[in-house]
Structures are given as structure tokens and as C-alpha cells.
Queue: 2 jobs
Job 1
Amino acid sequence: MALADAGVIPPAMTAPRPNRPVVPSAVLGTLIFVVAEVMFFVGLISAFTISRSGAPAGTWPVPGQPTLPKDATLYNTLALLSSGALLLVGQLLHARKKGSSKWAVLASWLLGAAFVALQGREWAQLLSGGLTLTSSRLGAFFYLIVGMHGVHAIGALVVLGLVVAQLFRGALKGGLFFGAQVFWYFVVLMWPVIYARVYF
Amino acid sequence: MSTAAHAEQDHAHGHAHHDEGFIKKYLWSTDHKMIAMQYLFTGMAMALIGGFTVYAFRMQLAFPGMSVPGYGRVTATDYNALVTTHGSVMIFWVAMPVLIAALGNYLIPLMIGCDDMVFPRLNRLSYQLFLISSIVLIASFYVPGGAFGGAWTSYPPLSAKAEYSLTGLGSSMWLLAVALEFAAFLLGGINFVTTVMNSRAPGMKMFDVPIVVWMIIIASILFMASVGPLIAGAVMLLFDQQIGTGFFDPAKGGDPVLWQHLFWFFGHPEVYVVLLPAMGIVAEIITVFSRKKLFAYKTVLYTAIGTGVLSFFVWAHHQFIAGIDPRMANVFSVTTLLISIPVAEMVFVYIGTLYGGSIRLTTPMLWALSFIAEFLLGGVTGIFLGASGSDIYFHDTYFVIAHFHYTFFPIAFIGSFAAITYWFPKMFGKMMNETWGKVHFWGTIISFNFIFIPLFFLGARGDHRRIYDYRHFPDLMKAGMQDMRILATLALLVLLAFQVVFLVNFFYSLFKGAKAPANPWEANTLEWQAPSPPPHGNFPQGLPNVYRGPYEYSHPDRQADWWPQTEPEPTKS
Amino acid sequence: MNALVLACSVCGAGQEGTEWAYLAMTGVVSLLPLAMIGSVAFWLYRASKQRDAEDAQHTGVERSATPEQP
């Protein structure tokens, strides 16, 4: 092998092994995807900011429509952030000893699911209060941005659920765990930005 | 993950000698070469649609009211749909799939010396999404109201409400098709970057990667970083169309200029997304046929990165007359003029490569040289549009049309023809006919200039671009103006006719062409070390070992004037 | 008719608040992708360096090194 590398043996005679990957492919692939996703949310948030700054007085929010429940949502935010922290714990445990992380990841999944459920309850209250997609532009932006984040959270939970199942069966496959981690951190870290921007 | 990647690669080797069924081989393949061919042929088929639409509406402009042979009378609604379809098809369904997806998929694994992409199944999904997006777009021609007619930029409020655009369903299907297409290229781009990072052949350092691969990678990164805001805008526009929200509808307090920003934040980098791969193709071809080392490899690379960075700061030059803040307009004027510097630098580097080389005027070389000449014209006329002062006059005239066709035609067609004629022997194992290739080249280049030079003059005389029948505008029917429109249309007919030469040459060579050797152009890069066409797994003798950069031509110590990347240094005794 | 009159692209322009929002968001949207790509590229560069250093340690052979005689 070393001789082939040094060029003494012509390349046709030996089959060199492929290089070791520089970084895990699943992490890099997901990371690039996350860059595109962050830009998607930044696009939405910039549109929100510009629309709000240009809104005529008395249309943002429209009087008589419910205001966004920023205090109640603080609990949702905490649930999601602690879910992300637990997954980080799971990752550290996994790095130290494979298979020791399943309870941490399961807890992270449950907290994530709790976040989605709490968000759903909040939507139901707002909808019954008269804030809909078409009732005002604030409503449209709220449901669009928070809904898009929710869709990503649900998608990530499905993948994370697969990881949990694999962990409990003890058959973790390839890069799924790493990819799911990167994507879940994106979902978790995107939320405080949305919360700070849209609810206040 | 590394084990998974190896498993994938072993899998690919294991299947090297299997006989696969037709569907498995041609439609459900995870082989990067087959996916590249799928993209290439879909792109070529879509180019026929793009060509047919331009034929119909150019005939209407030159001979208003006539019944166009093969189409019939072009109504005003038809005209809008034809123009929109031409623009969106040529950019999203021809330039992108051929230059990025087809060539990226074909060349990246071969040129960096690995057997397939890192995520082959993701790659297959990418093409399938792209195919669905093409089908959705074509289906939109047949829904009530017809295809979308709000121009490929889809500005609201025209595009936001069915009562303005008159194509309620067509507009939404257009948006859906574009969104699906972006999802497809997103998956492709993830694959490209990860593959180049992780699967390079042993010994291949970052600066041994051929320029075209670098260009495709930079273009993919640009695409992925800029597409997000447009997808956000597309979702908002879809909500406006189908649910009745008021994001962009001024009647509900929305801001239509916001869409223009979201669109062009992607739309302008998109120009560089397709330009850079074409520049890369030209770099490969010019070095091979000048038999000289590429002049300043690292300069080209850093220049391309500089172009990519700058391309994030130019988009608002599309809104100079849309009432944007003059402070912003000034900044964007300066950045727009600045970005011509790196692009001009690349052109100088290519001329520097040509200087003193022993030039072989093959068909791909002719295409590459004409790319430089024609793109130069497109770039220089862009200066007039980048300066906000003159843009106020030129905005929405045929000057703009002529300018961006002088950039996009070289990119999408000259670049693709250069690439197809150059890599055809590798792709299909057959040589293309050189004589007919040159006939096609001259017929295309001459007629192309006859189409668009008249449009520069028309634009300078104030010819507005969104007019269906100029007979209603006496100011635009003054002496000679209609003659120039007729000249442009006749030249277009000639250009379209010459594409038949290409198609015949392509398919004849594909089946009956002379058999191609592994390295017909005597080139250095790795793809020419594989057999023509490369089998499943690419390198049947095992992965190549790389010893040097890709452009060692006419090395003084060697008798042969090329030095393949895989050839070891001679042992000194 | 009212809606048609309001379908005007420049009617919202010129308000100072909107203009500042446009300027600020232009900055954010343009610089953020560069920052993200830059940090990923830097991470890859470091990982790549590290891998090459480790590989060189293991095999003890550099590409550019003069090959030893067998």
C-alpha cells in the first residue's frame, strides 16, 4: 500500500482504498440542508419585519382580534429548549458509550412532542378567538411562520422517532442519528428567534 | 457514517456485472451517470418546448395577427403564456438541469475519481422530483385558463390574484412546479458538496480538483444559500393565490415590492449559478485544446469565490425603478459594476491560457472560444443596466432582453453545446461528426447575433418588452423598427433550423458514430482514464491514484504533451 | 376598482420606517448566508487538515516525497 502511494507500483496494479471521509457525510449533508432552511426562515422573518414596519396604524394588530400569547408560549419555548439540551446530553453519552443514550433521546423526543402539542392548543385558542389566515396580515404571517416551523418540528420528530426505535432495538444504522441531531438542533435554535421576532 | 459510505460503495461494485431490467436500468437507477443522462435528455426535451414557444411569439411580433404555422393565431393571453413559459423553461428546466444537474452528476464522481455519489438514493429522488416538476409545468398548459402568463419573474399583484392574471390554476401550478424543481436541485447540491468533500480519489488534494468541479460546487452552494427566501416568497404567493391572504396584495395592505426582493435575492445569484459551471466547462476545454497549463488556476478559483460572494449583493438592481430607497440603489449600482471585475478577470485568464498555446480548433474549442466572445458582449452591455441612471431609461426595453440573452444564450446553449461535444465520446463511447458539428456551430453563432443585435437598437429606441401587438403603438412603429423585428424573427428561424443539424448529428453519432477511444482529446483529468463509456462503478481497475494537478500540458521534461493525473512520477535512478 | 388603484408598486415606498426595515433586512439576508457558508467552510478546512495530518502520520508517506528505491 505504501509503495503504491509512493508511486513505485503503477496504479493499475493495486486498487487503492477510498479516502477516509473528512467529516461524516450525514452531518455535512444535513448541515448544508440546514443552511438552506435557515435562509428560508430568514426570508419569512425579513418579510414579516418589512411588512410590520410598513403597516398603517391600527392594522397591526387589528383591534378586536386576539393578541399573541407571549407569556403562555414561554413554556412551549422552555420545553423545546430543554428537549434540545437533552439531545445534546444524549449525544455526549453516545460518544462515551454506545447505547447509553436511549433514555435521554427518548426524553428529548417527548419534550419535542409536548412542544408541538402545546403549539396546537395555542392555535386552537387563537382560531376560536377570531385570528385566522385571512383576518389580518399579522394572522397570515403568524400562521405561516409558526406553521412552517411546526411542519419542520413534526418532520424532525418523525426522524428522531426512528432513531429512538433504533436505539431501543440496539441497531443504530449509519448516519441517521447524526443527521437527525443536526436537524433537531436547527429546529430548536430557530424557535427562539421566531418567538422573539413574531410574538413581541 | 464512514462504514455506511463504504457499504454503499461495496454495493456498487457488487452490482457491476449484473444484468438489470429496463426499468431498473433506465428509470430507477442510482448510478450517477444514468441520472445525469436522465437530466440531460429531459433538459433537451424541455429545450424543444422553450424553442417552440419562442418561435410562436416571435412570429406574432414580426407578423402580428398572422396564423403561425404549427401553432395557429396567437391571442394576447397565449402570448403572455408563451413568453412566461419560454423564460421559465429555458432557465429552470434547461440551463439548470443540463449545466448543473446533468454535468455535475456526470462529471463530479468521474473527475474526482470515485465510483458514485455519497447519497445515490437521494440522487435518484432528486431526478424524480425534477421529472414531476416538469410534468406539472407541462400539465399547466392544459388546465382551464391555460398556462401562467405573469412572466417568469411572477410579480404580484398580477400573479397574486386570478382576476388579474386570468390564470388561477395555471399560476399555482407554475409555482408548485418551480418549488418542486428547487427541492430537486437542493438534494442534488447536497450530494455534490458532500461527494467532493468526502470521496476524492487517494492523493487528490483540494487544488488537484479540476476547475469545472470547483465551479459546479461553488454554484451549488450559491444556489442553496440563496434559494430559501424565494421558497419563502413562493409559499406566501401561493397562500395569496389559493387562500386569499394579503402578503403581496396592496388592496389588503401588502407590499408587492417585497416579492421582487425575495425573488431577485435568488434570481440574481441564479445568473451566477448557471454562469460558473459554463465558465468551468470553458476552462477545461480551452486548456485541453491549447495544450497549455491553465493560466493561474488559483486565481480562477478565488475569482469564482469572489464572484459568488459579490453575487449576494447585487439583486436590488432589478428594482431601480420600483421605488426603492436611493441609498440602497446607490450601493447596489456600485456592487453591480464591481461584479464585472471578477468575471472579466476570468475572461482574461482564459485569454492568457490561449496565448502561446498550440490551439486545436475542434468543435468543442470553437464553442468555448465563442462563449468568451459572446458572453463578453453580454457582460459589457450589463454595465449600462447596472448603473441606476441609465437603467431608468433602459428598464423593460428590448435592450434588457438583448443583454440577458447575450449572457444566458452563451451560458445555457453555447456552454451546453461545448460540454456535450467535448464529453460526448466519454458519455456514449462514440465520436460526434466534426464537420456537421462545425456546420451547426457557424449556423447557430451567426444567426444568434442576427437575432439580438437588432434588439439592442430597438431597445435603445425605447421598444418596450411587454407588448403583444406593436401596431397599437405608433411611436414604436417608426421607420425601420418593424423591419428589425422581422430580421430578428427570421434569424431565429434560421437558428432553430440549425438545431435540427445538431439533433441529427447527436442521435446519428449516438448509434452509428465511430467508436471513441478512452482519451480521444489527450486530456489529463481522471474521467479520461476510465473506459468510454465508463461502466457501473466507473473505474474497473480500481480507484485511480492522483499524483498531480489536472492541467499539466506541454511539460518541458516530457515527450508527450499531456500528463494524466494518474501517471506516477518517473522513478529517478 | 379600489383594488386596482391600490395595485401600485411604489405606494408603500418612501416611508422612513419601511426604508429602514428594508435596509436592515438587506444587511441580514445578505450577510447571514456568507457567515454560515464561511463557518462551514472553515470547519471543513480544519477537519480536512486534521485528517491529512493523521493520515500522513499513519502511512508516513507524502505524495510529493521522493519515492524510495525498493
Job 2
Amino acid sequence: MDMKINPRRLGALIRKEFYQMRRDISSILIAFVLPLILLFLFGYGLSLDVRNLRIGVVLEDRGEAGMDLMQSFAASRDFSVTLAHARQELEPLLARGAIRGFVVIPQNFSELLAQPASSGGPLPLIQIITDGSEANLAQFVDNYSQALISQWNQKRAAASASNAPGIQSEIRTWYNPDLESRFFLIPGSLAIIMSLIGTILTSLVVAREWERGTMEALMATPVGIVEIAAGKIIPYFVLGIASMFLCTAISMIVFALPLRGSLLMLLVISSFFLFAALGQGLFISTISKNQFLASQLAILTAFMPAVMLSGAIYDISNMPAPIRALTALIPAKYMVSSLKTLFLVGDVHSVIWPDMIVLAGFALFFFVLTALKTKKRLE
Amino acid sequence: MARSSAFIVSLRRIQALLIKEIAVLWNDRKTRILITVPPMIQLVIFAFTATMDIRNVHLAVYNKDHGNHGQELAQRLDGAPIFTRLIFTRNEANLRETMDSGKALCAVVIPQDFSRALHAGTTARVQIILDGRRSNTAQIVSGYLSEIIQTYYSNLSIAKHTSHAAVLKTAVPLVRHWYNVNLIYLWFTLPCLVGIITTMITMVVTALSVAREKEMGTFEQLLVSPLTPAEILTAKALPAFIIGMFEGSVLLAAAVFLFGAPMAGSLALLYASMFVFILSITGVGLFISSLSRTQQQAILGTFIFLAPAILLSGFATPVDNMPDWLQTATLANPIRHFLTIIRGVMLKDIGIADISANLAAMLLISVCTLTIGVWLFKRGLK
Amino acid sequence: MTAKSSPVFVRLAAVSKRFINNGATTTALNAVSITVRPGIVTGLVGPDGAGKTTLLRLIAGLLRPDSGDVAVLGWDMAANPVPAQADLGYMPQRFGLYEDLTVLENMNLYARLHGIPDTEKQDIFDRLLRFTDLERFQKRMAGNLSGGMKQKLGLACTLLRKPRILLLDEPGVGVDPVSRRELWRMVNELVNEHTAVIWSTAYLDEAERCDEVFLLNSGALLFTGKPADLSRRMRGRTFLLKGVPGDRRTVLSEALKQPAILDATMQGSAIRLVLRANETMPLFLQTGQLADCPDAAQMQAPKQAIRGTPDAGIGTDHAENLTHAALSSLPDAAAHASCAEKVRLVSVAPRFEDAFLDILGGAPHGESSLSRFFAPVAGGEHAYSVEARQLSKKYGSFYAAKDITFSVRRGEVFGLLGPNGAGKTTTFKMLCGLSKPSRGQARVSGLDLAAASSKARGRIGYMAQKFSLYGGISVLRNLHFFAQAYGLYGKKREEAVAHMLELFELAPFAAQAAETLPLGYRQRLSLACALMHSPDVLFLDEPTSGVDPVARREFWMHINALVQKGVTVLVTTHFMDEAEFCDRIAFIFHGQVAALGTPDELKNTVAGPDLPEPTMEDAFVALIKNADMQEETRHCAQTR
């Protein structure tokens, strides 16, 4: 293989690519419009932060404590409460999805609660019913109402003079004290955006050269295959980094995302990821050579995994072992982990360096594979 | 009489187109693979991906307490099945490093005076630290953690203070998940994926079928034939529609028989809804294909529609969590309505009355997308 | 010019190349050995699929041969193509241009890729831009150039480095004769003792302009040498039958039935005949008296028979005398005297194509099987089958077609001729209802197709330029589909499909995917699909580009049969011999009908003392010049 790189030839190829980018709507669409759409979707649309969770409260109890608990629910900013006196009233609402769950304060609640703990006897139970068909929301209803009840218990204990001892759990969330889900969703979306540019756009533009016959013309000139590859990688690398920093700036300004790590590290890790993604894109276009197939392959092997398997939205640790093993093959996974750390924690070398090494490995793997598959020939 | 025979002629022409469309799709190896293999793989992989079932939690413990309680609490945490690994940290820096590097999802810090406070009968404190990068999972875990700690204390206090009269009873929450008793996430993700994957395939098939003919030049051949625009349109929409229904059925069967998802409600109702749903998706597909001249444009158009429509369907994160304006906007998203219906029918056995609003919305969307699709299609012929 | 002593630039020794596609192996080149020398234009001639592109790619080092050696300027291309590529200029079929870059940006790119220093660049650019006449268009996107200009730009990009070997892959495709002539002029200027040019083409008339040709067919090298050497074999066997009385189409189809005739084609009002070697010209073709003597065998042989012997060594004038002699010595010459006076059989110069046909075994014989299947088109209530009335198409402020008016009679073959982008295709599309006129009317069988019911469209047949059937599905399914789309179903459909399979000999391929058919068969299938419903009017858009001459003859034989049944044919074409086949031609230029008439009339308008026997191509070129001149004078008049 001819490894020589002639700077003038390479420069000409790069310049050509930029001219084309400027005039091709699909480049602009993929590099700037789609990223912004995705960014705003992740910033505004996707959210794991509960707000106004629609629940019902059935107050069967006539006592004071029951009333107080009900009022705690009604006053909570997490819930938007529909009141009822019988559960039959709420069941159809749950079925219809008008509420996501309901809390039942049973008839003798206040009575049971007033009994001393030492007396034994039945416990003052509060029933929490969730809509299991909306698994996420069921989880939220479960967590949030449990938390509210536990707070209510503590408040009651504090109010009673007895001042019972206990263990107080003090919960802190590091890196994201206000528990804003978009703070960890947006860094994930940046990885998705970069796979979009790195893999889909690159595979499309290379496949286009094959389709339009310009690749043939290039190959008949003294240009080496390394120069052709570099002539594609460098411009789309620049485009990817530009898009990345645009999105970072928007995330920080519009969504108040903190950047606790250094800009330099962000640049470095993004570069490594982009190389891996570009390598994948080049490889795809080498084996498919037409835009339709290239785009489908890129969506199936790069975009979908970046969304579903990278940890951008779903925690990898919660996945079953075989799928966790599969995620190890997704470059975006390493990018997501590093991005989240860089934005929310800082330059944690024990996270970023291993990720970087793996990404470099991916880049090398794809480049070598592409080099082996591509000769400066048409067959 | 003349009218009815013209109608039959028209039907015959549509039949011819239909056979051809299906043959074209099926004879193309790429298309054949595209509509069969990736959907199944996606169903299998993504069904397990989109989960909040907590697994594999690594917990860091920083026990500053030299007394017995600190040690015992740590042992109790170690024994809890939810934590697959416990990392004992020796100092503040070590703890920070463990959290920073993401080796542990959460940490429990037991203070120096923990045992002393418990012995003295005063309030002991424990600090729970969650990783904000994965705050969603961490929050669920923190619930478990609080529970373990409270149980530890009550066992302790019951053993110690059985005669202590002054202790108040506390309200005890008891959670029941209806329709999905064990809150199996798979039951939630499978119906969603059936809807979403069906959408993707239907869209790609509709959007590409016209663009491909335009690129190949066969479209002009159709236009000069006696086929009317309405016939061409019907014949373009129908295969996509049939493939969509077929894909939906296969995925549904896989969800129920392969993964054991429940099918509590009426299959007829589900199919009726799927019918309307795929109709609306076909409309969007026609809309995109009328606007695109090449396959590449069709792919991009599909992508630009699909990305928001899927992300805002209530699959990735609940619609309830979105800002109000966005919730209103999702009313125009057919996927959102269909996911509500399919989950409702499969898990809740809801009746037509409960989904009538969703059904009506989808019907309205179908009418709109199909009308615009047809209008654009006809306009594109000029 | 030919210098056997000059060094060999390209040498292919017993080169074979196969491709495997979906399990099927096709041999693109079979043991081909050639040598190319500088100082001449070497033609690589053959129909589509002959192996031309493969051969060029092998020379350019883009493919590796399966066996045999490729040496370019002494370098073994299989081992390392890079050193030789520095001296190669290769223009692929689509010119290798970036359509979204401007003319200048394209040139800049290739200049840098070829390592031309910036100091020299400007001079080279100036020279080439002047040479290609693209100076005015430097800032225009390559995608917005016309076919001819794209081709010139493609050439300019390959010439930047002054390559020692210039490889041009079908530079003439889709380019009108004027641009083609210009290209030839440019290439001829380039050739010198340091430069070798290989020009590949499917147009056999282009072969005659080459100094040396390699004739390829189905991967095999059929001929190497000067084109004239090949044509010379045909000397004394080519004739022109002028002044044919009655229906020349009938004479043509009768001529094709004669075993002695290698080839017969229409040439305006005349018929061009090629005799097989050592055969005698059938008598009725000497007299043109078809009706009186339908069977030539019954005629007594003339005393002085016209034999297709190359040894005869007769010049044109001599031949004419000879023919007259032959005619006058007919046994009952007196009976035929009246028509014999008009009919003249003239010996003409042989063409390269004649020789190629001779090698391939001649034009298909007999008559088109269509004449059995096709019922005559009933005489309708309309005098004209196709009418254009002030047909105009406006894009923005630009008229792609303006006030186009003509009428086509039933059973007429009407041609639309003109350079690319002049409005030919726009007009064609308006006529067959694919595009709505901004103004005016297009009527087919008295109906406006753009507005008409599907019933009206059911009466036309349409065959697109590109193969536009469904390639992925079987031949049978394609036929079924088109039959049913045109309203045939049940037994009628089965009958029509069975007929077509039989007529076009497609039955063995019925189950095969259409795209895997050889080009000629694809052509047949396209025609079959357009004909199954027995249309009154047939629209053909450049129907035979790239097809080998035998398949082209066959195609026109079918069309001839249809026309005799009263089918009206509307055709656009770049092929001059296809234009000759037309009864009348509308020459469209600048969106308007610049000339209208029979091929002979058009040719006669340009005939003059310096051009006594103009060809169709001459007429084409002259018509463009005239139209341009008129345009200019009008423009001058306006500005004044």
C-alpha cells in the first residue's frame, strides 16, 4: 500500500470536500439541523424528572392523621392529586391512564396509628397502587409516594415530644444535586450526535463518490488511497468537532449544563471518538458502495446502538449480562461514559483514559479493516 | 353498469400494481433482509435494554465507625441481594475516587459516632451518596438503602426496646403494581417496541418505494400507462400497509409467545387500532416520498420524522414528564397514541371506551396525513 | 501517422477478466492482446457490454487482470499502477466531475491532484479554458452544464497534466453531433508523437475517425487495424437504391427477406443495401418494382449480374454506369422502363458498420413476427395521430419549449432531433402527457393526454431511454404487470403475454430477473411491454443507444412492421441512422422548431457546391449554425 501523503494533493481533496459540504443540503441537515433537533429533544422532551405525577388519593379514614397524610400528598409538588372517597371511583381512571396510581388511606388508619408501638396489633398500612403497564411511571409513583410517607412519618415523630431515636439517612446526590435528568441525558445525546456525523454522514458521502463515478476518476490520478481516506476523514472530523462544540455551547447556555472537566479533555475524547466513528463510516461505505445500503447499515450499526446501548438513556448496568457484553462493542458507550464524567464530575483520569484507549483501539481496528478491504482498485 | 365495470377495471389495475409491488420488494434481497432480520434483532436486544429493573449495583461503603454497629450495618448491606459488589473505602479520597470513577453507583458513609449514638439512644446519622450521572437508578437504589437501614434499626430497637412504650407507630406503605404485578419491565418495553419497530419498517418501505421508482425511471413508465394517480397511490400505500400489519403481527406474536408478554385484552380491538395506526404512518410515508426525489432524501426525511416521533412517544421517558407544551405537541404523534393503546390492551384489558380518545386522535392524524400525502403526491405528478 | 517504429505505450498480452455477480460468472474480456502506440487515435469500438470499460480500467490500473499482462509505459499495472498513473489521463463515463463544484473548482482539484505547481497552473488553465471554450462558465456548477460542456470539462480535467496516455470512456454518449465534432477536433489537436489516445465508443461511425481500431464484441477482439482496412472488405457490396417507387418500407422489409442481402436500412427516401459476399443483388431491388415482380427468384437473372465481390474494384461512378447497363439489359426492360428510369441503384462507399455487421453475420432476416400478431390500426376519425399546437413550457422566465407546432399523420415515423437541452425532451414529455404544457396543446388521437382519462393513455405505448422496467422481478411478471396495467386480464392477458414471449424469443428467460438479461433482450422486453396492448401511437425516447447494430436492426425491423400496420411512431434520437429512418423530422433548437421536413429535405437545405451529398449529421450541424446565426442577427437587430 502506498503510504505517502502529499500535502498539496491532500489539501486539494480537503478543500473539495468543504466546497461540497457547503452546497449539499444533506450535509448541513445531518451536521447541524439534526443535532439541534436531537439536542432539543433530549433537553426538553426526554426527562426522568417527575413533575405533577397524576395520582389519586382515596381517603377512607375519617381520622385526623389520615386527613393530614392526604393533605401532604395534595400539597406535594411532585403530585397532582385527584381525591376520592372510594377506590371504585379511581379504578376506571387508572385503567384509562388518567392517573398513574393511587394511594389508599384505609378506614381505620388513624386509629391504628394512634396505638402505641408496643401494643402489637395490625400495622397502619397505606396501600399504593400503581399502573404497572407504564413501568417507568409505576416506579416513580412507588418511589415518590414511599418517600413522601417516610417524610411524613419523620415529621410526625419530630412533632411528638417523645423524640424517638433512630437512624436518619441523609441523602446527597453528587455531581447533580438537583437531580436534573437532562444533565445526564444531554451528554449522552452529544455522543449520539457525533455518531450521526461520524458514521452516517461519512458513509453517505463516500458511497456517493462511488455512485457518481468520481471515485473512479480519483483513483486514476496519482492520489494514494491513504490520501483519499485522509481527505474524507479530516473534513468530517472538523465538521464533527464543530458540531460538537456548537452543541456543547448550546447545552451550556440554554440548558445550563455545567462543564466541570477541561475543554481540552473534551476535545481529546471527542477526537478519539470521532476517529472511531469515522473509521466505522469509512468501513461501511467500503463494503456497501451505495447510499441506500450505507445509510441503513449506519443507522442499524451506529445510530440505534448509540441511542439504545450506549448508556445515553438506559443504564448499562441494569441490562442482562449478554447485552452488557454486547455494549462493550459499541464505541458510543465509551464516549457516553467519558462525556457524562467530563461534564458532571471533571477530568477523572481513571474514567477517561481507559475509554480513550478503547476508542483508539476501535479507530485503529476500523482503519486497518478499511485499509485491508480497500485497494486502489475498483474490484 | 358502465360505472361498475370501470370500477372493476380499476381494481384489476390496482391488483396488477400490487402484485408487482410485492414482487419487487420481495425479490430484492436487500429489502427482504431489511424487513425481516433487523426488526427481530432489535426486538430481542432492545426489549432488555430499556429497563429500569435494578441489577448489578456496586455499592461503596466508608465506615468511619469503629464500633460494632457500623460493622454490622455494613454486613447487612453486604447481605442484601441487590448489591452485587461492595467496595470498602478507607478514606475520603478513596471514596471520592471510587465515586468519581463510577465504580460504585452509590455510597454509604457511616460516621464515627454511629455506634456511640445508637448506644446512647440518640439519633444516629448515615450519609447516602448517589452518583448524579446515573441519578435515576441511584434514586431507586437509595430507596432500597433507606429501607435496609430502617430495618436494621427497627430490628435493633425491637430487640432492645420491646418494652419502650413511647415509640409511635409509623405508617407502612404497601405497594401493589396493578396489571404487571412484579413490575416486569419487559412487559412494558415489548408492546412499545412492537409499535416502534413496525413504524420504522412501514415508513422506510413507503418512503422508499416511490423514490426508488423515480430514480429508476419506472415512475414515468407508470405515469404514461392508463393507471390513474389514485390507483398508483393506492398500490404504493397498500404494500407498505400490508407489510406494516404483517411486521406488527410477527413482532406481537414474538412478544407474547417468545417473551411471554401478557395479552390480556381483545385482539380484535388491538388489530383495529393497529389498522388505523399503520394507516396514519403510511400517510406520513407518502408525504415524505412525494417530497423526495431520491432515495437519499427519502431516508433523511424518514429519519427526521422518526427521531422525534420515537423519542417523544413515551417509550424512552414518560410523556407525563415533559413540559406541558410538549405534551400537547405529542398529541399529534401517532406513535404516542398507539403505544398507549397497545400497552392498555395487552396489559390492562381496556375496552374501546377507554381508548376512544386515542383512537379518534389517530384517525384524525390518518385523515390529515393521508389527505396531505395524496395531495402532495398528485401535485408532484404535474 | 501510424508509426510502427514508435514505442509501444500500452501492451496487453492475452488479458482475461471475469466478474462474478450473484453467482453467475460473466467474461468481460477473453484473451485480448493489443498494443497502443502514440501519435494516433486508437478506437475501442463495440456495443455496450463488449468489454470496453473493463479494458480501459485495466489500462488505468483500476482493475487487475485474471490472467495475462498489462504493461503501461513499461510498468506492470498489476503489480504497481501508481508510477504509470502519473502519466495517465482517464475520463470515466460520467466524466468524473463533481457536480456540486464549479468548473474552476473542479479544475483546481484535479490540478493539485496531478501535482501541477501553482506557478504553471494559470497558464494551463487559460489554455485549456480557451481550448474547451469554457472561459465564460468558470463559476458555473459542473452539474448545471450541458452534456457537451460537461464532456469538455471532463476532458480539460484529464488534460491538465499533459498525459502521455489519454483514456476516454465513451465521451460521445448522450452528446449531440456538434459537441462530438468539437471533441474530435480537440482530441486530434492533442495527438502527437508523445501522446497516445484511446477513445472508446459504441457509435460505429466514430470508429471511422480513428487511426486504428480494436473492435470488441462480448469480450472478444474481432478486429485490429485501420478502420478503412475493415471497411475495404466490403468494397463493391454497398449500394444505395434511390427513387424507390411506392412504399419504401415494404421494399425494405422485402429486401430483408432476401438471403443475398446482408443489411438494408432506410436512408431518407433511399434504401441502403449491403450484399453478402459473392451474392447477386436480387433483381427487384435493381428495379424497385416490388408489385410487379414480388418474387425475385422467378425473374431471369440479368446478363450482367451485380455481385458482391470486393475484387470488382468498382468506383462509384463506374458502378452507376454498370447499374444502368444492368437495368437496360433486363429481358423485359421495356415493361419496366417507366419506373426503371426513376429507380437508380448506386454503389456507395462502405462503412465500418457494414463490416461489423458482416462479422456478426448480418442483419436479422425475414420479417418481424409482429406483423402476424398486430392487427392493422383502424382508420380513425382524426386525420392526425399526434398534434402539437403552440406547445410551450416555461420554467420561470425561461422557455424550455416555445410555440412548438406540428402534426403527425397516422402510420408516420416522426423524429424529434436536436442538441441536448434544446427542448427535445421537454416537447416529447409534453406530447406523451408526462409534463403539463404551460401553454398550447398536445393531442394524441385527438385527445389531450395531460388532461385525458386513463383510457386515452391506454392507446399509447412508451419506451423510455433508460431501461425502465422492474429489474428485480422476472420477465414474466413484468409482462403480466404491464398487460394488466393496460387493461388486459384473464385469458386476454395470458394470450398477449404468450405472444410476446414467443415473438421476442423471451420464453427461455421468462423466469429470470429482468435486470440479468443481456442488453439486447432487455430492449426486446421493453418493446414487448410497450406493445402488448396494441397501441395506436408509440413513443420512443432514444430507443437504441448503446445497442449493438444487429439488435438495432432488429428493433427497427419491428418498428417497420408496426408502421406498416398503421401505428404512428414518435421518436427522439441522437443516432443519425435512426433519424434517416423517420418519415419526417422536427429539428428542435432553442426550444423551437428550427426546421421540419423529410430527412432528404433537411439534407437538401444544407447541400451546396462544397457539400453536394450532405449526411444527416452535416445537416444537423448546419442547422444549428444557421439557427445560431439567425438568433444572433435577431439579437443584433433588437439591440440596435
